[in-house]
Amino acid sequence: MLYVDNGFIVYFDREMTSLNEAMNITFYTAQQSIGYASYVALEESGLEYQLIELDLAAKQQQNADYLQVNPKARVPSLVLEQGVLTETPAILTYLARLAPESAIGLPEDPYEYAQIQSFNSYLCSTVHVAHAHKHRGSRWVDDVAALKAMTDYVPTAMSLCFDLIESQMLGGPWVHGERFSISDPYLYRIACWMEGDGVDVNQYPKVKAHREAMAERDSVKAVEAFYSAH
Ligand SMILES: N[C@@H](CCC(=O)N[C@@H](CS)C(=O)NCC(=O)O)C(=O)O
Questions:
Q1: Which atom of ligand 1 is nearest to the CA of 124?
Q2: 29, 59, 66, 75: residue to mutate for ligand 1 pocket, most atoms within 8 A of CB
Q3: What's the average pLDDT block by block, 10 residues per block, for the chain (230 residues)?
Q4: Which of 55, 59, 127, 210 sees the fewest Cβ atoms within 10 Å?
Q5: End position of a domain, from candidates 103, 119, 140
């Protein structure tokens, strides 16, 4: 089922018998964006949701209707009965709490839980930000030479991040070892940016194996099938 609402394209992930069933969770994302991590987590969770796909190239994130949802003009956003959640680590944690029996359910152990938060915080505050210097440098500076210098440094900055992830953080086969978690779709999204960021994934065998394992999951296949079809 598909309709267009306020210029955004709206999809339902499954055959819905009732529209209300689909309206409890509304997920705004965009292709190639960090929203992909939450999209995969939604698929892992088994929760019902409504998907609204924004076109970032067309600047739909700056549309007045969307700014009412997320004044930061970014994706992803998760609209719930209680309000709106933004920021990938918060959205992932929320979904994991909603679906404790699913593959993304959180560990009871406080230390294991904090390890997940620690890794996701690193992705959010450091790795994603390093990646954003490529095309979004104008968030920080407007000097043309400085913008170019920031873009030129992206392969180095991202390589330094992946050096640490490969050598210190990625337990294997999943980020935190044998147990799959919300860190896995998050790392997968960012690791799939490596080539575009000028980083050779072959230099990172554990990251490469993680990417290959993620690509085999039904959740990732479902998201890929969606983007192939739309
Ligand atoms: N810290 C946020 C970052 C969100 C973010 O920067 N999303 C990008 C896509 S990857 C975006 O919406 N960019 C649109 C823009 O900068 O105009 C998160 O982790 O969710």
A1: 19
A2: 75
A3: 60 49 82 97 97 97 97 98 97 98 98 98 98 96 97 98 98 98 98 98 98 98 96
A4: 59
A5: 103
